[in-house]
Design goal:
The protein has 134 residues and is mostly beta strands. The chain has helices at residues 7-14, 105-115, and strands spanning 30-33, 36-44, 47-53, 61-68, 71-86, 93-100. It starts with 6 loop residues before the first helix and ends in a 19-residue tail after the last helix.
Length: 134
């Protein structure tokens, strides 16, 4: 699995006007959501907000692939919200909240690294947009 981003995709993300909450340690953290490259915008113990091109269907379960050190790991995640953050000739960018469908030690370590904090286990939010990170 290749985690290299298309340079045009990186420039589109860098030029985006979405400037609210950010995970400092996750700047430019590249992941795969299904078959789509994405960048982490925000992270919580129960899920992440990712910026990507191409629409994802609400309620769908996707494989979220990420790196833990030098190895790759993955978790099943559910799309609980998605919104357009940029319309452009190069393509539309979306911010999508993904809720982890399962938890593992890999996910916990990854989130702790992204947020630079120890992950506690609060109850996850319900599967609806009111619980969205982005």
């Amino acid at each position: 699995m290749n985690f290299e981003l298309d340079p045009d995709f990186v420039m589109a993300i860098a030029g985006s006007s979405h400037e609210t909450r950010r995970v400092q340690a996750a700047a430019n953290e590249v992941v795969r959501v299904g078959r789509t490259d994405a960048v982490i915008v925000e992270a919580a113990s129960w899920g992440v907000c990712v910026r990507h091109s191409g629409a994802l269907r609400l309620g769908s379960e996707l494989r979220l692939s990420f790196r833990i050190g030098s190895r790759q790991a993955a978790v099943v995640a559910v799309v609980i919200s998605s919104r357009v953050v940029r319309l452009a000739g190069e393509g539309t960018l979306f911010d999508t909240t993904l809720r982890f469908a399962e938890r593992s030690i890999d996910v916990q370590r990854w989130i702790e690294r992204l947020t630079d904090a120890t992950v506690f286990d609060p109850p996850p939010p319900p599967l609806h947009a009111a619980a969205a990170l982005c």
